[in-house]
Design brief:
CATH class of the largest domain: Alpha Beta
CATH architecture of the largest domain: 3-Layer(aba) Sandwich
Number of domains: 4
CATH superfamily of the largest domain: Alpha-D-Glucose-1,6-Bisphosphate, subunit A, domain 3
Structural class: alpha/beta
Number of helices: 14
CATH topology of the largest domain: Alpha-D-Glucose-1,6-Bisphosphate, Chain A, domain 3
Strand content: 15-25%
Largest sheet: 7 strands, mixed
Radius of gyration: 22 Å
Shape: globular
Number of strands: 22
Length: 451
Amino acid sequence: MSDLSAIVKAYDIRGVVGEQLDAGLVRDFGAAFALLIKPESPSVVIGHDMRDSSPGLAAAFADGVTSQGLDVVQIGLCSTDELYFASGSLNMPGAMFTASHNPAKYNGIKLCRAGAAPVGQESGLAEIRDTVEQGVPEFAGQPGGVTERDVLPDYAAYLRKLVDLSGSRPLKIAVDAGNGMGGHTVPTVFEGLPIDIVPMYFELDGSFPNHEANPLDPKNLVDLQAKVREVGADAGLAFDGDADRCFVVDENGDPVSPSAITALVAVRELAKDPGGTIIHNLITSQAVPEIVAENGGKPVRTRVGHSFIKQEMASTGAIFGGEHSAHYYFRDFWRADTGMLAALHVLAALGEQERPLSQLTEAYSRYAASGEINSTVEDQVAKQLAVKDAFANRSGAEIDEMDGLTVKLPGKAWFNLRPSNTEPLLRLNVEAADEEAVRALTEEVLSIVRS
């Protein structure tokens, strides 16, 4: 078998269907996954998104799993966090077929152990890749069986149990599903709540005819922002393709930063669990650890990436974790990420008081930020070193290298410069007291990076 390192990524398997991924290879991945988890579980739960290739690939994977004597529970169309719910509530390892926000020609597999525990390079993916490359051994015993199950009603009921919206004032919320799985899950999750949904692009369509299902890119929020203003909505929600991330815009159509959402949800979780630990990655706003501490919580800073967040949550017993990329992790959701649960928290916070969302979130937005700025560079290490040297002797500068290079400066300014794992890029994030300070610091760092 050829080298599979191009499609077996750090956290999942992903590639172009027909070129890098086909039914035969996916069947082998299913068999290899079965071999990995056979000592732990007799069954695997499998779900898939709305891409044209997803049902066939999910069936091929199931065939591989059952060929090794394990049973399969097929839950069909679902969001990634719905698959995590199934893995947690049924206590089964899981496989989700999705390429998230990638273009239509891609597909992929996100894998987890029972209880939604992540499977990454260090925790099983490398082993799966090696098994497939070397040839999956045949199983001489009886093949497993396949059953079908709809877990969407249970998923929705579980989320509504975690966040009580019964006392909320009526809200009008525009929701852009981007033709992704939010169009499938939102109607069931919000059923019976005091929320008037204004749906946008709820039709499941893996060709993404309206816009890319990636709300991290501002151009994909434009339609939602216009709709919020047009209908006078109280807020807008935008989900990515597999609906595990959720972005929020306020009543003016202005984006609410994921850092502000992290702080808001953290305060609500701390009210239920005083003194709890809250995880935040190192490029969320410094407002997050400040607000967590002010509310009696213990902030813990981690590297960027869900495997680090989930690892820290497990080792610290954290109640909640948030990232700048709008991934939100909950102890009460098997430490897995769910944008839907974060969205319910935001709507509950909005609905239990009278102020508009822009005023509500003002308290959680203390600083100006640059957003992520990418620079193409040939030698990432040399450029990082040049930046480090430039700031090393700066009065009051604090430098750490937990994940790339982070430099804290007097006056609440800081920046992080980190290399991409997959491209010749350096990613810069800058935060400071005001826009002018952000602009000056950004220009200073970029002048070194791009020289």
